[in-house]
Design goal:
Number of strands: 23
CATH topology of the largest domain: Jelly Rolls
Strand content: 15-25%
Largest sheet: 6 strands, mixed
Bound molecules: zinc ion
Radius of gyration: 26 Å
Shape: elongated
Length: about 550
């Protein structure tokens, strides 16, 4: 039975994530202020918890162990007193309030949430009293029901990050009674723990603006390295086979006979339908930290991307689903949210995630960098078929060409033009645009400026991408997804002001100005790009 409570005051005073989610036909019958089924599961589960064992008196009397108390935590630590450590219980209490806001929960229902925590420098001091829950080693952190253990870190930011990470696990387990699927629960702990403190106020889930803001975290650098290694592996492919079909618990990418990644030891991971999302970036050096980085990246992406944010934020309430259904549910939520069919939702998620991962950087500007799928020329215009391409013109020499306008302050923009594999196309870009406004205005043309590089090319240079035909077709007409994901990866080309390109793939042409996804804000202006089919030349 579903219990429904409306907490009007709570609804009005707190800017809730779910405040405007009424009436969306997504199979989610959750209503604002109601106790969701997911919370009822959490309530039922924790009602069966046994109280924690008393800690040994000798441990409590240990002169090197301090006790730091907050409303929602008691923290035992051998780390000597300093503001960053002594402040942790207060940070934990703020985290609980912030998590209630994030998930849209009534804080009053989480009044009794209480955790026993250990912040450990010298493991021996704790292990001799048998308070480590059976652990022999601990490098980062661990949580079990309402206990957390965190290893001391020399970096203040990263110390808090790990502490919050385990705190999020403890809270979500308390609230929803579940700690799987792995990608979601670890990703959420990672994403939410990525924090800021402004004037003493804790803010969770902040995308890092620069290295020093998240000192010691290094998730962005890890993803950049994984993507680079993956691209290199693709470039050096032995027989061209990139097997991205994932079955069961095994997440693996094969290039020829070489297994880039084989994480069969991670049998606990049930990534369901989202398995391939991870496979595309992991290079298999076997470090768990890389898997955490990918979970962090994926959840950060989902929580920030304008196309997925709303659907993603409803997911916590579907933790009642099986792990496989949970991944599917996410796709369904996206499909309902955006009023597109399920396969189109899945495809757009893949394409967007791939683009984000390739271009990830500090201060990533999600709204400006998001791929613009609105086709300027109408979906699927083809230079060789004038009847379906409104904007295709013939010039005096009888050459067929088409022209699109590309904004300098946005990521990939769909031309609407379909290019055919192994045909030659001439690109001519005209106009100039602003690339920066400080310390002075920087103007550039489509060949870019060679004093600064991004992705191996000068900033300002015109770039092209083809999303291959099967995907392009699916994007346009929402056809059935094909089994093979081999053609998933887009084809890229650095174009500049004047170039000829013979793509290897059939597909929709996207264009953008080369500039990091964190510096689009200060761009301004457009360029005009003429695309001409060389075969039509006389
Ligand atoms: Zn974790």
């Amino acid at each position: 039975m579903r219990r429904i409570f409306l907490f009007i005051l709570f609804f009005v005073t707190i800017n809730r994530v779910f405040a405007f989610d009424f009436g969306i036909d997504s199979g989610v019958e959750f209503e604002v202020g109601a106790i969701s089924d997911a919370e009822l599961v959490g309530e039922r589960m924790r009602s069966k918890w046994q109280p924690l064992d008393q800690l040994p008196k000798a441990f409590l009397d240990e002169p090197d162990i301090r006790q730091l108390k907050g409303k929602h935590i008691i923290l035992y630590t051998d780390v000597k007193s300093c503001a960053a450590v002594d402040n942790l219980p207060q940070i934990f209490d703020q985290m609980v309030s912030e998590l209630c806001v994030y998930f849209g929960l009534d804080l009053g229902r989480y009044d009794k949430f209480f955790v026993r925590g250990f912040l450990i420098d010298d493991m021996v001091k704790f292990s001799k009293y048998d308070v480590l829950g059976g652990m022999k080693e601990l490098r980062y952190g661990y949580s079990l029901r309402n206990q957390i253990w965190v290893r001391y870190q020399s970096t203040e930011y990263y110390q808090r990050h790990l502490f919050l990470h385990e705190g999020v696990h403890a809270f979500m387990f308390y609230a929803f009674g579940k700690s799987t699927p792995f990608w979601y629960c670890e990703g959420m702990a990672e994403m939410l723990a990525t924090h800021k403190i402004d004037d003493g106020k804790l803010r969770l889930g902040c995308f890092p603006s620069n290295v020093s803001a998240t000192a010691g975290l290094g998730r962005i650098e890890t993803i950049q390295r994984l993507v680079k290694n993956f691209d290199a592996a693709i470039d050096n492919k032995i027989d061209g086979k990139v097997d991205l079909n994932i079955g069961g618990n095994k997440v693996g990418v094969k290039v020829g006979n070489k297994i880039i990644n084989d994480v069969k030891d991670m049998g606990v991971i049930d990534v369901g339908d989202l398995g391939y999302l991870f496979s595309l970036g992991v290079d298999g050096t076997g470090e768990r930290v890389e898997l955490y980085a990918m979970c962090w990246g994926f959840v950060m992406f989902c929580d920030n991307h304008p196309r997925y944010r709303a659907a993603f934020r409803r997911l916590a309430f579907r933790l009642t689903d099986s792990n496989t259904d949970f991944a599917r549910r996410f796709i369904m939520l996206i499909s309902c949210e955006r009023k597109i069919d399920v396969e189109a939702a899945r495809l757009s998620l893949e394409v967007d995630w791939n683009d984000f991962r390739r271009n990830i950087c500090y201060g990533y500007d999600f709204s400006r960098a998001a791929i613009d799928f609105n086709c300027q020329l109408g979906a699927g215009a083809n230079l060789n078929n004038v009847s379906i391409a409104n904007n295709v013109t013939k010039n005096n020499d009888n050459n067929l060409s088409s022209e699109v306008v590309i904004r300098a302050d946005r990521g990939w923009q769909c031309s609407g033009l379909r290019l055919e594999a192994n045909r030659r196309y001439n690109f001519t870009a005209t106009g100039s645009f602003q690339l920066a406004d400080k310390p002075a205005i920087w103007k550039s043309e489509a060949n870019g400026i060679t004093i600064k590089y991004n992705q191996g090319a000068p900033v300002g240079k015109l770039c092209a991408m083809i999303i291959s035909d099967v995907e392009a077709k699916k994007l346009e007409s929402k056809l059935q997804v094909l089994n093979s994901r081999k053609s998933l990866l887009p084809e890229y080309k650095i174009i500049g002001a004047n170039a000829t390109w013979k793509p290897q793939k059939n597909g929709l042409l996207f264009l953008k100005i080369n500039d990091p996804a964190n510096s689009l804000k200060d761009n301004n202006g457009n360029i005009s790009v003429k695309i001409q089919d060389e075969k039509e030349k006389k």
